[in-house]
Specification:
The chain is of the alpha/beta class. It is built from 9 helices and 10 strands. Helix 5 runs parallel beside helix 9.
Length: 320
């Protein structure tokens, strides 16, 4: 029997994640404080999730929630949380790895804080550098406008032009209160998760973690824990980058309309939404231009090969 049964339920939401899922599960099975692993299958190749679990025998039991289709990240998190039996909830992306002893350290650091608390570890790239999104400021319409228009370049040190992602700032050496942590990995008491209603299921993909941190911060504290570093391979799922950007843009606008319609005048919210959609359109056009250029280069290369073959054939025929 797992020696710390009953403490932490680990929840992994997977959507065509591939072989990285097995590694994430293995890292969770290596945690003494994890009593169960719940994989919410939003869509994977047939048998892929079961195979990822079977590759890692031993450790705490792992179960699969499936059959619901791709219901989005927020809804999937809630499905996993409702199934969970542990005192704590640990959410981990399927393309991330929990280091040995990481869960124990999160529990120990959380025990020093006043409840309710939400803790997010340091999210790092495969090369060890801190990943964008690991530490973030509150996302406001003004901050989104500054990001989209790149006004931060005018006065990067001015507080009015403070950027959303602050992973470039010096990393604190102790547990520190922050407005927003990453949804790639976060940890809290199960009871506290449901005290604010869990994730807002109106968000399908992206910004649900930002919304959760904002709502949780009003009830308790959101903290960044530099003592635990989580390697995270971004964009591992089989999904269109353009579809992701479209959903992200729609989610940001929904978030603003939900939380900032009172303090911000409607015309500025409309302006911000217009700028965000224009940014999305520019990305879409840029991707289309890149694909078109690649296609033209391929055709030119194939045409060149064809021309060379035709000349070689002509020379052979004349030689006869």
């Amino acid at each position: 029997m797992h020696k710390s049964a009953g403490r932490v339920s680990a929840i992994v939401v997977s959507y065509f994640t591939g072989p990285l899922l097995a590694r994430a599960i293995a890292s969770l099975k290596n945690q003494d404080d994890v009593c169960e692993i719940i994989v919410v299958d939003n869509g994977n190749w047939e048998g892929a999730v079961a195979a990822a679990i079977e590759v890692n025998p031993g450790g705490p039991p792992a179960s699969i929630i499936s059959g619901h289709g791709n219901v989005g990240f927020a809804t999937a998190c809630n499905l996993g949380a409702k199934r969970a039996k542990g005192e704590y909830l640990l959410f981990l992306n399927p393309d991330a790895v929990m280091p040995t002893g990481g869960v124990a350290r999160l529990i120990a650091d959380g025990a020093r804080l006043k409840r309710p608390w939400l803790i997010g570890p340091k999210i790092i790239n495969p090369d060890g550098s801190e990943q964008q999104g690991s530490r973030r400021m509150t996302l406001t319409p003004w901050r989104a406008f500054v990001e989209a228009t790149r006004l931060y370049a005018l006065a990067p040190r001015h507080p009015y032009f403070r950027r959303f992602n602050i992973h470039g700032d010096p990393c604190p050496d102790k547990v520190t209160a922050l407005p927003v942590i990453s949804g790639a990995c976060f940890f809290l008491h199960r009871e506290d998760y449901f005290s604010i209603g869990g994730m807002d299921e109106r968000y399908f993909l992206h910004v649900e973690d930002v919304d959760f941190c904002l709502r949780f911060g009003e009830a308790g504290g959101v903290y960044f824990d530099p003592h635990v570093s989580i390697p995270h391979h971004k964009s591992s799922s089989r999904v269109s980058a353009i579809r992701v950007e479209r959903r992200k843009t729609a989610s940001v606008i929904r978030y603003f309309n939900t939380h900032f319609s009172d303090p911000y005048p409607a015309p500025f919210l409309w302006l911000t939404a217009g700028v965000l959609w224009a940014t999305f359109a520019a990305k879409l056009a840029g991707r289309a231009a890149t694909r078109a250029g690649a296609l033209l280069r391929l055709r030119a290369e194939l045409g060149g090969v064809g021309a060379r073959r035709a000349r070689q054939l002509s020379v052979r025929r004349r030689g006869r």
